[in-house]
C-alpha cells in the first residue's frame, strides 16, 4: 500500500512545479511589459518635465525645443496601443474582436446590441417591478 503513495507523490510535485513554472513565466512576461511601458514613459516625458522646471526657473528654453519635447511625450501615448498587443495576448484578442482591421476572417462581427448589453450590465434577467424592489 505504501508503494503507490510513494509513486503518486512525485507526480503531484511535478504538477505543482509545472503550475509554479507557468505562473512564473506569466509574472516575468507581465514584469517585462510593465518595464518596457514605464521605461518608454520616462524616456518620453522626463525631458519634458525637466525642461518645464528649467523654463520656470530661468526662462532660457527655446519655444521650438519645448514643442519638440511635448510632441515626444505625445508620441509615447501613441506607442501604448502598439506595445500592448505585442506583449499581451488578451489585449490582442480584444482588439481583434472589436476592430475590423484586426479581426480574423473567420470571426463573426459583434453586433451593436450585444456590445451595449454587455457594457451596460443589463443582460437577460428576471422581470422586476417596484413591488419586488421595495
UniProtKB/TrEMBL annotation:
It is a multi-pass membrane protein. GO terms for biological process: adenylate cyclase-activating adrenergic receptor signaling pathway; positive regulation of MAPK cascade. This is 5HT6R protein. Its main location: membrane. It is found in: Cell membrane. GO terms for molecular function: G protein-coupled receptor activity. PROSITE patterns: G_PROTEIN_RECEP_F1_2. It comes from Chloroceryle aenea (American pygmy kingfisher). Residues 113-134 are annotated as: Disordered. One of its GO terms (cellular component) is plasma membrane. Residues 1-84 form the G-protein coupled receptors family 1 profile domain. It comes from the Eukaryota. The chain crosses the membrane at residues 27-48, 68-87. Keywords: Cell membrane, G-protein coupled receptor, Membrane, Receptor, Transducer, Transmembrane, Transmembrane helix.
Amino acid at each position: 500500500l505504501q508503494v503507490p503513495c510513494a509513486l503518486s507523490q512525485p507526480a503531484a510535485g511535478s504538477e505543482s512545479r509545472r503550475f509554479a513554472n507557468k505562473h512564473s513565466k506569466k509574472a516575468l512576461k507581465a514584469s517585462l511589459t510593465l518595464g518596457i511601458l514605464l521605461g518608454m514613459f520616462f524616456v518620453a516625458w522626463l525631458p519634458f518635465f525637466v525642461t518645464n522646471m528649467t523654463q520656470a526657473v530661468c526662462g532660457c528654453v527655446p519655444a521650438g525645443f519645448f514643442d519638440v519635447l511635448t510632441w515626444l511625450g505625445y508620441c509615447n501615448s501613441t506607442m501604448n496601443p502598439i506595445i500592448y498587443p505585442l506583449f499581451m495576448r488578451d489585449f490582442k484578442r480584444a482588439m481583434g474582436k472589436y476592430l475590423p482591421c484586426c479581426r480574423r476572417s473567420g470571426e463573426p462581427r459583434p453586433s451593436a446590441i450585444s456590445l451595449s448589453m454587455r457594457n451596460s450590465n443589463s443582460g437577460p434577467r428576471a422581470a422586476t417591478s417596484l413591488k419586488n424592489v421595495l
